[in-house]
Amino acid sequence: MSDSIETFEASRRRLLSIAYRMLGSMAEAEDIVQETWLRWHGARPEALATPVAWLTTVTTRLAIDRLRRLRRERDAEGHWLPEPWLVDTLPSAEDTVSRLCELSYGVLLLLERLSPDERAALLLYEVFDASHDEIARILGRKVEHCRQLVRRARERIKGPVRRPTRDGGAALAGAFVAAIRAQDKAAMIRLLASDATLVGDTVPTPVTAGPAALAGPLLRMTAGMHCTLVGINGGWGVMLRHGHIELLLSIEPDGEFIAAVYAVMPRQVFAFA
Questions:
Q1: What's the CATH code of the domain at 242?
Q2: Can you give the residue range of the structural domain that contains 209?
Q3: d(CA 111, CA 114)
Q4: How far is the C-alpha of 260 from the C-alpha of 199, rounded, in Å?
Q5: In a domain, 162, yes or no
Q6: What is the per-residue pLDDT across 102-154, written as a single tens digit (0 to 9) for each?
Q7: What is the pLDDT of residues 205-251, one digit of tens each?
Q8: In what helix (H) or strand (E) does residue 180 lie, and over which residues does it extend?
Q9: What percent helix, strand, coil does the chain show, rounded to 5?
Q10: CA–CA separation, 124 vs 134, rounded Å?
Q11: Cβ distance 157 to 125 under 8 Å?
C-alpha cells in the first residue's frame, strides 16, 4: 500500500465522522468520503503538505455543498429526520466509543436548526477541537466570522453540544424495555421526566405533554413488538421488530428519568434479510 493510500485510510474514520454529523445520513457521508478520495488521488503533491488538514477541508466543504442541496430537496418533501447510526455494542463507561458515535440522535436533530456553515463551524470547534483559525482556513472565512458562527450556533441550539452519557443510562434503558414488554403504563409514567418529549416520523411535531399523556402513545406504538437494547449514535436505543426491523427508539436519559424518545423509522439505512 502506497504512502498516499495509507494516509487516506488512516483519516477515513475522521472524514466519515465529519460528513455523517454534517449530513445525518451514513449513505451520504460515504459518498462524500468517496469524492474526497477521488480528489485526494488526483491532487498535486505540493497540495498535500498537510494531509489531514487538506482532507478535513475538502470533506467539510463537500459536506456543506451537499447539505445545501439536500435541504432544498427536503424542503420540497416536507418532514425529515436524520438517519441513525446503529452500532453493535451498547454504551459503556469502560469502553472507548468511536468518535463517530459521540453525538446523540437528539443532538443531530438540534443541528438541523443550523445553517450549513454554522453546523460545520460548531462541529469542528466542539467535536473535533479545531481552533477558530483552523475553522477559518477550512471554511475559507475570516477568523472573526467563524467566532460569530460558533457563537450563533450555540445560541440557536441553547448551549454547547451535549454528548451521550456512558454511565447511569443502563438501568433506565433496561427499565424502559421492561415497561414496553409488559405494556406497563404505570412503569412508563414513572420512567418519563415531567418534561419528556416524543419526536418521530409518526409524530410530525415534537410532543411535550407530560408522562401520563406520552406513556399511552409510546406503548401503543410498540405493542406486540419484540424489543432489545441497541446502541444508537453512541447512546441507548431500542430495536423493535416483527421478524424484521419496524422501528428504532433512540432514548436520552436525564438523571433518573428519560427526557426524550426519538422514534426513528429505519428507511433504507438498514437492510436485513
A1: 3.10.450.50
A2: 170-269
A3: 6
A4: 8
A5: no
A6: 678 888 888 988 999 999 999 999 988 899 999 999 999 999 999 999 999 99
A7: 566 778 988 898 889 888 889 998 988 887 888 988 877 777 888 88
A8: helix 170-182
A9: 55, 20, 30
A10: 9
A11: no
Listed as own residue / partner, the contacts of 195-198 with beta carbons closer than 8 Å and 24 or more positions apart are: 195/259, 196/257, 196/258, 196/259, 196/260, 196/261, 197/259, 197/260, 197/261, 198/260, 198/261, 198/263
Longest dimension (CA), the chain: 66
> What is 116-176 written as a DSSP string?
HHHHHHHHHHHTS---HHHHHHHHT--HHHHHHHHHHHHHHTTSSPPPPPSSS-HHHHHHH
**119 in a domain, yes or no?**
yes
Partners of residue 248 on adjacent β-strands: 239, 264
Please, which residues bridge with residue 245 across strands? 241
Q: pTM value?
A: 0.80
